Amino acid sequence: MISPINRLLREDDEQMETVAAILNQKPGSIPFVLFGPPGTGKTVTIVEAMQQLLLLNPDVRILACAPNNSAADLLAQKLTNLGRQARGHFTHIFIDEAGQGKEPEIMVPIKSIANDETNIILAGDNKQLGPVVHSQLAGNLGLRVSYLARIMDREIYDLKNGGSGVTIVKLVKNFRSHPSILQFSNTHFYNSELQPCGDAALTRSLENYEELPRKKFPVIFHGIIGKDDREASSPSFFNIDEATQVKKYCLSLISNRKNSIRAEDIGVITPYHAQRCKILDLLRKDFRMQDIKVGSVEEFQGQERRIIIMSTVRSNTNYVTSDIKRSLGFVANARRLNVAITRAQALLIVIGNPIVLSLDPLWRELLNYIHINGGWEGKQLDWNPEEAVSAEARFAEDRRTNAEREAEETIQRLKAMIVQRHEDSDLEIDFDDDDDDDEAAAFERPIIRESE
After folding, report:
1. Residues 310-336: tens digit of each pLDDT
2. What percent of the chain has pLDDT over 90?
3. What's any one GO cellular component for it (predicted)?
C-alpha cells in the first residue's frame, strides 16, 4: 500500500496507479508512458513517483529531464526538497513533456546514460505541441513526430487492449479548468474522458464577469473584422484592432476590484511576434497591466492562468487567391489550438475574424460551440452553427465561390456607376481596352470592403 507524500494524489486513482506501475517495474522494462492531458497533474505525479522510488530504495539514482527550460525549471522546483544529487549510474530516467521534444533530444539521456537495467519513464501528451523542426529535410525524415507519439502508436501502448496500468496510464482528472472551458478539448482530443475536478472557488470565480454575453458560461468569442498587416522589415503579422480589444478586456478585468484580479492572473496568447510587441506596447502604458504575460502558445505550454485571452491576428479575406494555409497561417494547427484554450482556469476570451477562422473545420467547430452556448460577441457568423461541419475543401470552396460572385457583382456595380458618370458628362469609356483606360483596368483588382 502506497502512502503518498503529496496527499492530494490519494483521491486520484490514475495518479496512484501510475506511481504503483513505476514502482513495480522490473529493471530494464520497456519505456513507461504517462499520458497526461492538460491540467491532470502529470508533473506532480512523476515527482511523487521519484520520491516514492527513493523511499523504497535509497540506492535508486534518478535523472530528471525535460526538452525545454521552463519544463526543467518546474521539475527542479518540485524536487528541491529531496536534497540529494543523482550522480553516477541512474536506475531511472524521467523525461517530462516528452511529446514536445525532438527524438534526438530525448535520446541524449537514454542512449548516453541508460543501460539494460535502466527504467525510462516518459510523461507527456501527444495531443499537445510536438517538436518544432525548421529543417524541411528533418521534417521529411520524420522528426516532427516525437518519440512519445511514435511509440504510443504501437499496440503495446494501447490503452484499451491490455496496456493500461502496465505500459501506460492516462490521467483523466482535470484540476485546472472550468467545465465549459474544458469541454471542447475534452470532446475533440480526449474522447470525452476528462473529468473536471478543479477547485470551484477558482474555476467558477468569473462565471458572473460583467462582460460575459451569457453568465455561467465563461467563454467569449469576440468577432472583429480587423486587418492583419506587417512592418516592411518583418514577415510577422499584427492586427491593431485585435490588440486594442485585448487591452480593453485586460483593463476591464484589472479595474474590477470585486474579482480581485491581478496582472499575473492574465495571460495573452498570440501566434505572431509582431502582435505580441503591439499588445505589450499598449499594456505597458498602464502600470497596472505591465505584469501581464504576452507570448506564443509554445511559451504557455505547461502553464496556466486564471484568464487567457487569445488574439488570432489573421484577417485576410481575399478568399479568391488565398487558401486556408495562407489565410490562417500558424492559427490552423489543431494541437496549437488545444494547448491555447486549455491554459485557462476560469475565463477564456478568443478574439478574431470568424469569417477567416471558419475556413478551418476545427476552428469552425469551436466557433459553433461558443455561439450555441451564448458566448458570442461582435461580428456575427455568416453560417448556420447548428449544421454539421462540412469537409474542409467543400466549405472553403463554397467561400471562394461566394467571394468570386460578390467580387464580380461589385465590379459590375462600379462599372455601371462609372458608365453613368461618363454618360452624364458626355464622355465615352471602353472597358475592353486596359491599355487606354487606367480607371477600367483598376477593376481587375477590386478592393472589397467588409461592408460590401
Report:
1. 999 988 765 434 545 555 666 678 899
2. 56
3. cytoplasmic ribonucleoprotein granule
With a cut of 60, say whether residue 139 has pLDDT above it: yes
Among 75, 86, 190, which Cα is nearest to 123's?
75
- Candidates 357, 379, 373; CA nearest to 218 is 373
Q: What are the C-alpha distances in Å from 75 to residues 27, 30, 44, 230?
A: 23, 23, 9, 38
Least confident among 24-38, 47-61, 80-94, 143-157: 80-94
Q: Assign residue 390 a region: left if phi > 0, alpha if psi is -120 to 50, beta otherwise? A: beta
**In what order do the strands lie in the sheet containing 62-65?**
62-65, 92-95, 119-124, 32-35, 168-170
Q: Which DSSP string corresponds to 107-134?
A: HHHHHHH--TT-EEEEEE-TTS------
| Cβ(307)–Cβ(346) below 8 Å | yes
Does this chain's domain 7-171 share its CATH topology with 179-389?
A: yes
How far apart (Å, rounded) are the C-alpha atoms in residues 81 and 91? 20
The helix, strand and coil proportions of the chain, stated in percent and rounded to the nearest 5, come to: 45, 15, 45
DSSP track, 373-385: TT-EEESPPSS-T
Q: What is the mean pLDDT of the chain?
A: 85
DSSP, res 352: E
CATH superfamily of 7-171: P-loop containing nucleotide triphosphate hydrolases (3.40.50.300)
What gap in Å lies between CA 338 and CA 341, rounded to an integer?
Answer: 6
Quick one: cell of 390? 462540412
User: What number is the average pLDDT over the span 206-220?
Assistant: 96
- Is the separation of the CB atoms in 390 and 358 below 8 Å? no
CATH code at 179-389: 3.40.50.300
Domain boundaries, the chain: 7-171, 179-389, 394-444
The predicted model gives 133-138 an average pLDDT of 90
Which sign, positive or negative, has the C-alpha torsion 191, 71, 110, 84? Answer: negative
- 156 in helix, strand or coil? helix
